[in-house]
Design goal:
Elements lengths: L36 E14 L2 E12 L7 E6 L11 H18 L3 H5 L5 H8 L4 E11 L5 E11 L8 H13 L16 E2 L1
Antiparallel strand pairs: 1-2, 1-4, 2-3, 4-5, 5-6
Length: 198
Amino acid sequence: MSDDFWGLSEGGSAADDTTGAFDAGGGKFELIPDGTNVLAAIEEAKWSGEEKSRYISLRMTIFKPDELEGRKFFHKLWVSDNDPNAKDPEKKRDKALRMLAAIDLNAGGKLLAKGVKPSDEALTLHLTNKPMVMRVGLWEVNGRMGDKIKGNNIGAVSPKNSPVTTSEEFARLQSASSKSSTANSTGANRDLDDSIPF
């Protein structure tokens, strides 16, 4: 590799090798079907957003089921300020606080014990790398160009020893979600007594 910052490992320079367009490859991931119960851990937890529009941003990594190992998904917890896009911001904030409390309890309960608004450092220290079962949910919003933007988030959390979606259940969920993009749930493995729906 060249000592030149822009030097490429195979020779040449990125500065000479660009037309202003680049595709990193990898394609677009299919959404994880709604209702999939995964063993996952938060790998990043931090405050995000702008003044008077702050929320806790979570990034999770999935361990099980095997078909999803290594996949990541994201969630915003509007626990401090109101989500400007929410129909009922106070109700959404209450749900977000309950979810954060459930996540924290599954991660050891240290934030709840302190009883104060957590800092970035506290979120990282007490919430990351603690496996728990999360039910994956789906969200959909209208984009600026009139298109639908979809993604995954946390639908529910439960202790790490709760059931995880099996390969067969995952295949059924995938099949059902590909047949109907408007279906909210296939009902597979959703009746966890320990789960807290959000």
